[in-house]
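Can't paste images in this forum, so I'm doing it all in text. The chain is below; anyone willing to post the predicted structure tokens underneath?
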Amino acid sequence: MKRNVIISAAAAAVLTVGGPTAAALAATGDTARTTTTATAARADVTAESASDAALKHYPGVVESLDKDGAVWHVNVIAKNGKNAEVEVSTAGKATTRDTDNDNNGNEYAPLIAAKVNAKKAMAAALAANKGAVVWSVDWDDDDDNGSTYWDVEVKAKDGTTKHVHVDPTSGKVTASSSDSNDNDDNN
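Text version of the structure:
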């Protein structure tokens, strides 16, 4: 009787935190497994961890990364210049969506040689914007004056976004511009 009360209480708590999947596991009486599953089911992958998962799945360097609903789209350039779009789910699972083997490897030489990669650019942008989260990262070499930089979009808790430019050689924030409250549906 006491065991049933404990299991019922655990199931109620798990249902509140983890939803139906966790509740089904709680009904089996395996509360340790339930807690782990509930946490994993509710976890949201950050830009940094999406980048890590994509690079583990398809080695190279990140060219761009953005969140589309619950999925991260990460463009990865291999050392030989071939590239792939890797999708990373909220559970952190990476899958190759599309590959392009027709690109000229020289096109990506500056990106591959950059001292500051996407992850370091994200860290610099977050250091300059405490409490924000990374929403997208893009390698930008199409500037009219020929300069290259990382464009890191960060989102503050109040919903405002800011584009932060990070120097690919020094890692210093070189410019930033704020957007008004960006209420897109990509939350």
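The mean pLDDT is 77. The radius of gyration is 21 Å.
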